[in-house]
Design brief:
- The complex is a heterodimer.
- Chain A is built from no helices and ten strands.
- By secondary structure, chain A is mainly β.
- In chain A, strands 2, 4, 5, 8, 9 and 10 form a six-stranded mixed β-sheet that branches. Chain A has a four-stranded antiparallel β-sheet with strand order 1-3-7-6, with no helix packed on it.
- The model of chain A has no long low-confidence stretch (mean pLDDT 90).
- Helix content of chain B is 0%, strand content 59%.
- Chain B is built from no helices and eleven strands.
- In chain B, strands 2, 4, 5, 9, 10 and 11 form a six-stranded mixed β-sheet that branches. In chain B, strands 1-3-8-7-6 form a five-stranded antiparallel β-sheet, with no helix packed on it.
- The mean pLDDT of chain B is 94.
- Classes of the chains: A mainly beta, B mainly beta.
- At the A-B interface, β4, β5 and β9 of A face β4, β5, β9 and β10 of B.
Amino acid sequence: GAGVSQSPSNKVTEKGKDVELRCDPISGHTALYWYRQSLGQGLEFLIYFQGNSAPDKSGLPSDRFSAERTGGSVSTLTIQRTQQEDSAVYLCASSFFISGGVTDTQYFGPGTRLTVL
Amino acid sequence: KQEVTQIPAALSVPEGENLVLNCSFTDSAIYNLQWFRQDPGKGLTSLLLIQSSQREQTSGRLNASLDKSSGRSTLYIAASQPGDSATYLCAVRPGSQGNLIFGKGTKLSVKP
């Protein structure tokens, strides 16, 4: 079946502009995660959604970052007033549900490379 | 605060060698530990997931072990091949959260 897809694959924007990044999780997966990977840094957790529960936003670096998940499926990560330090690869992942067991395996999309000039 | 460390940061071996990648974490209260590989410019591919109650998992030439009390995991790759060249990432799921905390990875190069 189809894996996690993300769009766009690359995004170049000017400092101060807003950007939206999209993630389509694997069908049936109830948990969705956003991470970012900066050059020389590890993967950094941003936010995750589980079913209809309120999202865990504890990893968002500032209030310029927000995300929503519509209909329990597609998610959009929005970065307002982008800064150069926002340049990174933004990765989305989904899992069947959060249980601690094998169904907890997270499947990652190919990422969106964001460059802020 | 949970921290994940991977050693070495980079490793180069000749084809056919068996090798071990190391991962350590500071807080033993984890739900599970996952190993991923990342190819250049690509997303992550899940290799193995070890639940907190398990000691090891095997998939083909890969074997991952978990010693939760000492905060360590190893990924053993048998009979390495050039196609194994990638960055290998270790990640733990903390007990109280659903997200993963990642190490910075080990970049593996297998020479023909």
